[in-house]
Amino acid sequence: MNDRLDHESLAAHFTRRSLFGRTAGGLGVAALSSLLDRDLARADDADPPGGRAHPAADGLPGVPHFAPQAKRVIYLFQNGAPTHVDLFDYKPMLKQWHGKQLPAELLGDKRFSTMTGGQEAKPALGEITEFQQHGESGAWVSSFLPRTAAIADDLCFVKSMHTEAVNHAPAITFFLTGSEMPGRPSFGSWLSYGLGHQARDLPEFVVMTSRDREASCGQIFYDFYWGSGFLPTKFQGVQFRGSGDPVLYIANPDGISRPMRRGILDDLAKLNSIQLEQTGDPEIATRISQYEMAYAMQASVPELTDFSDEPQHVLERYGPDVHRQGSFAYNCLMARRLVERDVRFVQLMHAGWDQHRNLNSQLEIQCRDTDAPSAALVTDLKERGLLDDTLVIWGGEFGRTPFLQGKIEETANWGRDHHPYAFTLWMAGGGVKPGISYGATDEFGFNAVENRVHVHDFQATVMHLLGIDHERLTYRFQGRQFRLTDVHGKVVHDILRG
Questions:
Q1: For the whole model, what pTM was predicted?
Q2: Fold for domain 72-246+305-495?
Q3: Closest Cα to residue 450, out of 161, 97, 202, 217?
């Protein structure tokens, strides 16, 4: 009886981690071969202790798969979904049908959010802005976006985007991770995993968030929008905050000098390396590398966030909000400064576009807050010779309905519901053809009908621009190979430079 109890007691303390650590010649080797990434497979090459900046790490062998056209990405994600039919997709038919019920065959059995799912009347709502053609390309752009219109010949408008989700969080997650369900690695994490680290003293993947001053949009920024999913956490995005210290926990506590910090990190690295050798836990390697990154960022972040070296005309270009930490304008200028320092993926997320009942009041405000900074970023990159190999993306998770949410006589409460069946995003630089509009919707802006581009096609195209075959960048998890595009996606070659 006592022997049995002793055996049960021993088994209770014989954890999964200790099992892997004590059976390195058998089960441990098999398990660790799937768990450890390229750095952990060679424990001696893990980030070393010492007074050095965070070392640049190689990517996966053979990645990039071919010569990239883009080295960096700035993703200006517009949470809440900008209305394509008011901003980029000019449809005179909506004006002609204004207030009239859309054709039944157009609506069919399409799904919408619960806010209009039970709304029987779905009258056409003409654009609330004015459209004009701009540049040699003749791109149609709303009067609410004059700065974007001025750079129309630098942009590639993709007007035939379509997706599957009808609610915000699943739709955003789908764009950023390839799945509507949280738990998959985000775009930036996949790129960090495949391409490695090119910035020596800053993270490879940086995230910044902003929102409209009026807080009219209830969108939440979930951490899994920039999470590493089942990849080691060293590949997750690092969020720069909108107030206070840009990054948490990099400042030394009171009484701790930089040399003292260096000594503490060296000792911690030695202890962690011993534990890594014993257990093979990949998160220990992440811990070592993140301590070193934090140390490097103590010097790099203050210089990064000091705009005193920026010419006045550049600051004015981004708009009056450029000095307000946490604003979209501030984040756009930060994005340019980050890619100048070799940060590979910068993800800006701005909430405020979810205009169900306040289209007439909030759309112009959103455009005013984001128009100048977005255009300034493209112009700034172009002037500095960075646009050719930096891909800038602007767009949301879906579009807005061509029909009205609400009642036609209640002008102050006009709105548009979520619309996954057609919407527009634009791209600039990084190997994309400038001055073109690709794809088209029907005469109401309801369905994408020409050169349709699915979310997975968009993801495959961005990866292609970075020199990655989206079908070959995979990670084995729970018995299968996963990739950003799941089992879908075709590169849209027609929008790429030759």
A1: 0.85
A2: Alkaline Phosphatase, subunit A (3.40.720)
A3: 161
